[in-house]
Amino acid sequence: MPTNHYDVIVLGDDFSGLVAATLCARRGLRVLLATTTRAPASYQIGPYRLPVEPLPLVGLSSPAVRRVLDELHFQHLLKRKLRTAQPAYQLVGPDVRISVDADDAVLLRELERELPGGGGAAERFLGAAEQASHVGALLDPVFSMDIAVPPTGFWERREIGRTADRLEDEAAGWDGTLESDLGRAFFGLPAVFGTSCDPTALGPVSRARVFTEWRQGIARLPGDWEALRAIFLDKFTSHNGEVRAVEPQSLSTSWGKVTGLVVEGGEELGAGQLVAALPVSELLPLCDRKLGKRIAEVAEGTDVAAYRYTFNLVLDGVGVPEGMGSQVLVVGDPAAPLHGDNALAVFVDQPDGEARVAITVQAICPAPDGGAGPALDDALASLRVGVRERLEGVMPFYTDHVRLAHSPNEWAAAEGHKGDTERAQIAAPRPLWRPVAEPLLGVAGLPYQIGVKQLTLASTQVLPGLGLEGEMAAGWCAAKIVCEASGKKKDYLKDEVLTVGRG
């Protein structure tokens, strides 16, 4: 017998699950957020507080994000906290340093100055940027509708189908205009670091959408992921949501539907609906044979293709070149794959009171044949060496000004730290998923519903081609599905308040 019963249990730590939990609590359901990891979003070494992973906030004006922020009344709160730098970001390549600006005239001047060869190359790049904006905008009507994406029923599939064919054709046409290796890197790098997809399999829709969002401006929230999660958790608990760290043992099932969660010690928590906000590889061990087989069939092929690696530096301010932007995307050889030390994302924080600057670097590590474990540890150690060498081309002589160097993803001591030198991994690197065959709208992955009653998926694997926007959208759609199944409509809380007021 369950020791406690909830309308919804959200199991896992993917941000989309926190979004879904907060929306469900806001709409009047009794919700338990059952977290499963102990990995922090930031960590302390000596006097420095460093991120496990940076958070470039983009797409805040997109319909998928705006409907979440509006319902939770977060728009003004974020505006007070966010920092937005100009230009949006810089692209650094061989003999090229382009400041990517939202203004066409400014971007054209940059392109004319930096692109080799002339012959209208700058105009072609600008034309491709404008076409990318057009392709990306084709997703807006889909996320403006009160439907789940990916769809869960006939009518939703019909509505999305009206956009899908046109989007596919226009995205393919835009992709065909990218003639040079530099052009493909120019438009592809934001999606490499702004989505949860295998960088070698990114489709044109993802690349066009994410490039356009990055070009419109990148905001930084002090505290990155830790601060964003804190904002949602505060709203969640203010609506009587419960948070509990658990060691899940199994899902409870009865007559083909999920009825709850069994945690360490044998305690059973009942649930009217269960939202799985974790990778299916972590969900499968919790399932019985029949349920596990069904999930495995749906998730076939969506395994880990690569990992996003984080490397933190603290430099004396003089080690940062003059004119270096707050967000810099680096490519060594545009003709080579955009992973390993060939492609970097560099996020530069503001100087502290002692003129020290924290810099977070990200790179993509392809999944080794040996999988996670020693093979991945060796790959990350090798990648760190290549990353540091690549940085020399962006920040010459930076090594003379290093106060601290450390990766939260490795079992390695911090360089430059004279205190505790214990080798420890703060958090595993973020996995990037191999996409499903022919992803819906070029961005979707796993469905929300897999034919098991009262179980809804809501993780980075649902809309991996959209990054943060995809996690917000997946959280909103999962909440919509759960609330409708529980008899609560989207505006349930508002309707209740108005009804009471009339009485």
Named CATH architecture of the largest domain:
3-Layer(bba) Sandwich
Ends distance: 40 Å
What percentage of residues falls in helices of 4 or more residues?
25-40%
C-alpha-based Rg, rounded: 23 Å
Top keywords for this entry?
503 residues, alpha+beta, FAD/NAD(P)-binding domain, 15 helices, globular
Give the SSE map.
Blueprint: E1 4-11, H1 15-26, E2 31-35, E3 42-45, E4 48-51, E5 56-57, H2 63-71, H3 75-81, E6 83-84, E7 89-93, E8 96-100, H4 104-114, H5 121-137, H6 140-144, H7 154-175, H8 181-194, H9 204-216, E9 219-220, H10 224-238, E10 242-245, E11 248-254, E12 257-263, E13 268-276, H11 280-283, H12 289-298, E14 304-316, E15 327-331, E16 340-348, E17 356-366, H13 374-392, E18 402-406, E19 430-433, E20 455-457, H14 467-485, H15 492-502
Parallel strand pairs: 1-2, 1-13, 2-10, 7-15, 13-20
Antiparallel strand pairs: 3-4, 5-9, 6-9, 7-8, 11-12, 12-13, 14-17, 14-18, 14-19, 15-16, 16-17
Helix pairs in contact: 1-10, 1-14, 2-14, 4-5, 5-7, 5-9, 8-9
Short description:
By secondary structure, the chain is an alpha+beta fold.
Structure description:
The chain has 503 residues and is of the alpha+beta class. It folds into three domains: 4-36 and 246-302 and 434-502, FAD/NAD(P)-binding domain; 96-146 and 159-219, no CATH class; 304-431. It has helices spanning 15-26, 63-71, 75-81, 104-114, 121-137, 140-144, 154-175, 181-194, 204-216, 224-238, 280-283, 289-298, 374-392, 467-485, 492-502, and strands spanning 4-11, 31-35, 42-45, 48-51, 56-57, 83-84, 89-93, 96-100, 219-220, 242-245, 248-254, 257-263, 268-276, 304-316, 327-331, 340-348, 356-366, 402-406, 430-433, 455-457. Strands 7, 8, 14, 15, 16, 17, 18 and 19 form an eight-stranded mixed sheet that branches. Strand 15 and strand 16 form a beta hairpin. Helix 1 (15-26) runs parallel beside helix 10 (224-238) and helix 8 (181-194) crosses helix 9. The longest helix has 22 residues, at 154-175. 45% of the residues are buried.
